[in-house]
Design brief:
The chain is mainly β. It folds into 2 domains: about 10-145 and about 220-505, Porin (Beta Barrel), CATH 2.40.160; about 145-215, no CATH class. It contains 7 helices and 23 strands. The protein has helices at about 20-30, 35-40, 55-60, 150-155, 170-180, 185-195, 400-410, and strands at about 10-15, 70-85, 90-110, 120-130, 135-145, 200, 210-215, 220-245, 245-270, 275-300, 305-315, 315-335, 340-345, 350, 355-360, 360-370, 375-385, 390, 410-425, 425-435, 450-460, 465-480, 490-505. β9 and β10 form a beta hairpin. The longest helix is centred in the middle third of the chain and has 11 residues, at about 170-180.
Length: about 500
């Protein structure tokens, strides 16, 4: 995976306050319809089928369905198309990424004792990418709220003497001090003050805590660019067994890895009468790394000659996450008839204290009807309560309020997946449909996710080749900033995933 490079690297600051929010919790808690080509083509409706490396990730009992020891490798082309609408101005942006999204092997041990109820044991290892974070978004339009309002809101209540440089003190020195002692709100206020976006009401009072903007009301031409890269991956150790001819049980022990880089840049200009500042550029960068652990248990039962039922439970995932941020601000202002360009670049990396994120568990039920050698029809249902996302320590900076916000903003979600496969000798044709409810109580923030998939494969005997295509759509309202400039753009996102899988039986 690619990583966004941070060019402003000089000294490090260990700050006391982080900016985690509901979006962060959702980012690391959700998954995509991605895996092996067969799994992708069936829209992930394989909980009662098994015999597939990605199906093991849904129901670990699927490991015991394998008839032969196998290896499989899958690569994907992941594409995102975003259509934005911001004050009736429409823009398009695209991103794509090629990656290895699945690699696994399983070893089947058949029991030579035919009288034993345990027919076989399987041991499997599998790596999969649960979510690809690669994304690009471009928003442009003419709004009526300025980015200056963001900085003004951050500054209100902060004493003036905390924003002013003292004798011999540099931008970097004070920015670092504010991060260590006051947090990122004070750092934002400091950037805005040093870029002359606002002035104190009482400039001669070091204890002044009220400020007025140097950007007049009116219209503002705004461009917002967002870029993210990275992945949320899972490595699983699968242990499964077949009991009699009809029961399969399994367990997964999972480790998770998060790599996420995000960069955003807002450019704003105005010609409003009375504005001494007529251009602002604001850049923010975020880098997140983390590791987690979880477990899964599941079972599959052949309740009739052609009918299979599956049930599985995913524990919550406990992540330990580390974050770093950088930012800078530039402005253009008119002072005493001269045009001056200000560039406030602290050249500081804010290194935050590690924190723990618990993502919600999940319960899944599935059913599949197998038409002999001619094909199958499968259905999966899962239930996941996103209001159970929790940041810890609970009494840490902002976490108590954040967890309360999550509980009152997010809800439990049902996901439905349907898959069908038609077989003709060694050739298989597949299709699927998947639907996931919005995790928000107010679904105007993020809408439901809906998609279709299709694919095919050919079994050469000891070698298999499969192809799949999955397409999903979701609409959301993206707020630019949490305070001040809270205008939102409507985003229609289309996620496309092309997968090829090569399998080997031995």
């Amino acid at each position: 995976m690619k990583r966004i490079s941070f060019f402003v690297i000089a000294v490090f600051s260990f700050t006391i306050s982080q900016g985690q929010n509901t979006t962060d919790g959702l980012r690391y808690s959700s998954e995509q319809n991605i895996g092996t080509a067969r799994f992708t083509a069936l829209s992930g409706a394989m909980g009662a089928l098994g015999g597939d490396f990605s199906a093991i990730g849904t129901n670990p009992a699927g490991g015991a369905v394998f008839l032969n020891s196998s290896l499989m490798f899958s690569a994907s082309l992941f594409d995102v198309e975003n259509k934005s609408n911001y004050f009736n101005n429409r823009e398009k942006s695209f991103s794509d990424d090629v990656a290895i999204n699945q690699l696994g092997g399983i070893f089947v041990i058949n029991n030579s004792n035919e009288e034993s109820a345990f027919k076989k044991f399987t041991i499997g290892l599998n790596f999969t990418v649960n979510k690809n974070f690669d994304n690009e978004l471009y928003i442009a339009g003419t709004g009526n709220t300025s980015i200056g309002d963001f900085f003004l809101a951050q500054a209100q209540g902060i004493p003036l003497n905390l924003l002013q440089l003292q004798s011999g003190e540099s931008i970097s020195d004070l920015y670092q001090y504010l991060g260590e002692s006051e947090g990122d709100v004070a750092q934002n206020a400091f950037l805005g003050y040093q870029a002359f976006l606002f002035d104190p009401v009482d400039p001669n009072n070091p204890s002044n805590t009220a400020y007025v903007s140097n950007i007049s009301n009116g219209s503002f031409n705004q461009e917002y660019a967002y870029l993210s890269q990275g992945y949320n991956s899972k490595f699983s150790i699968n242990l499964a067994t077949q009991i009699t001819n009809d029961l399969f049980f399994g367990i997964n022990i999972n480790t998770h890895t998060i790599e996420f880089d995000q960069s955003s840049y807002l450019l704003e200009s105005n010609g409003n009468p009375g504005s001494t500042v007529n251009r602002v550029g604001f850049e923010n960068n975020l880098s997140v790394t983390g590791a987690g652990i979880s477990a899964q248990v599941g079972g599959i039962a052949k309740v009739a000659s052609n009918l299979r039922l599956g049930l599985s439970f995913d524990t919550p995932t406990w992540f330990q996450l580390s974050e770093e941020t950088t930012q800078n601000l530039e402005s253009r202002r008119v002072f005493e008839g001269q045009t001056l360009n200000e560039f406030v670049d602290p050249r500081i990396i804010n290194v935050y204290e590690d924190y723990t994120l618990r993502t919600p568990g999940k319960i899944s039920a599935s059913a599949a009807y197998v038409f002999g050698l001619n094909g199958l029809l499968s259905f999966d249902y899962s239930y996941k309560d996103y209001s159970q996302i929790e940041f810890t320590p609970i009494n840490g900076p902002n976490f108590n309020d954040l967890n309360s916000t999550i509980e009152n903003t997010l809800k439990a979600v049902s996901t439905y997946k349907i898959g069908a496969e038609f077989r003709r000798n060694q050739l298989s044709i597949r299709g699927g449909f998947h639907y996931e409810e919005s995790p928000y109580i107010d679904d105007s923030i993020v809408g439901d996710l809906m998609g279709v998939s299709l694919g095919g494969g050919y079994n050469f005997g000891r070698f298999t080749c499969d192809l799949a295509y999955s397409r999903s759509e979701q609409e959301r309202n993206q707020q630019l900033y949490s305070v001040g400039l809270t205008d939102a753009a409507t985003i229609n996102a289309t996620y496309s995933n092309f997968v090829v899988s090569l399998g080997f039986n031995f």
